[in-house]
Amino acid sequence: MRSDQVNFSRYASGYDGVAKFLHWLVVLLIAAQFVIGWTMPGIHKGTRPDGLIAWHLGVGATLIAVVVLRIVWRLTHSPAPASLSPFFRVVSHITHGLLYLALVAVPLLGWANASSRGWSVKLLGVLPYPSISPVGSSAGHAMGDIHGYLAWVLFALIALHIAAALFHRFVLKDETLQRMLP
Ligand code: HEM
Ligand code: HEM
């Protein structure tokens, strides 16, 4: 098979099935985290991690595991390069890089805050994650505040990312959106 044929088929398929599955699973889990995070009751000293707070920690534990899997998969499986102009290539690399950074930082800060409250974070309710911040630590408390602010930054990045996907689909009318669809 000629090399240009190989490139064409790789471009047409874009991301592999696992990468697509993990991308959309993360979208689902993050949407849930925003809804729960913004509707759960205010947290004070002595608040019990029940109800919606327990859901936020439970979905969060799954999200952390899926994000780790996603990053490992991405580092070991490069997608075929998109046919973008140099300008859009740089902008998309920066946005994707920032999205990955926020995907790691926001959950880590939430986890640290949970640890500093003495709350355990368990994967699927059974596998406990280690505590990453001492109980009662003021740094852990501050990380909870930063978690809330950075969630807004993540929200803005996602809005920009969705706008870009729609711009590709409806203005540039190229195949970019298709690369992440089944
Ligand atoms: C990208 C994923 C996540 C998003 C979008 C998110 C979003 C939010 C939001 C919007 C709040 C409310 C902030 C406020 O009202 O000031 C919050 C609070 C909180 N989240 Fe998350 N969260 C995520 C992941 C996690 C994870 C993985 C954990 C822990 C395992 C976690 C633990 C917490 C805790 C403990 C609070 C209370 C912080 C405080 O009030 O001091 N979050 N989160
Ligand atoms: C929680 C929300 C989302 C997050 C955190 C997110 C994150 C990401 C990241 C990090 C990448 C880069 C993949 C890589 O090269 O490793 C990506 C790619 C992509 N995302 Fe999202 N995404 C979200 C929602 C969406 C939505 C709602 C759409 C569609 C409207 C979408 C469409 C795409 C497309 C088409 C690509 C491939 C871009 C390309 O080929 O260069 N994403 N996403």
TrEMBL record:
Task: Provide the membrane topology annotation.
Answer: Multi-pass membrane protein
Q: Which UniProt keywords apply?
A: Cell membrane, Electron transport, Heme, Iron, Membrane, Metal-binding, Transmembrane, Transmembrane helix, Transport
Which parts pass through the membrane? 21-40, 52-73, 94-114, 149-172
Q: Which InterPro entries match?
A: Cyt_b561_bac/Ni-Hgenase, Cytochrome_b561_oxidase, Di-haem_cyt_TM
Give the Cytochrome b561 bacterial/Ni-hydrogenase domain ranges.
15-182
Q: Where in the cell is it found?
A: Cell membrane
UniProt cofactor(s): heme b
The keyword Cell membrane belongs to this UniProt entry's keyword annotation: yes
Q: Which family does it belong to?
A: Belongs to the cytochrome b561 family.
Question: What is the protein name given in its UniProt record?
Answer: Cytochrome b
**Annotated organism of origin:** Paraburkholderia solitsugae
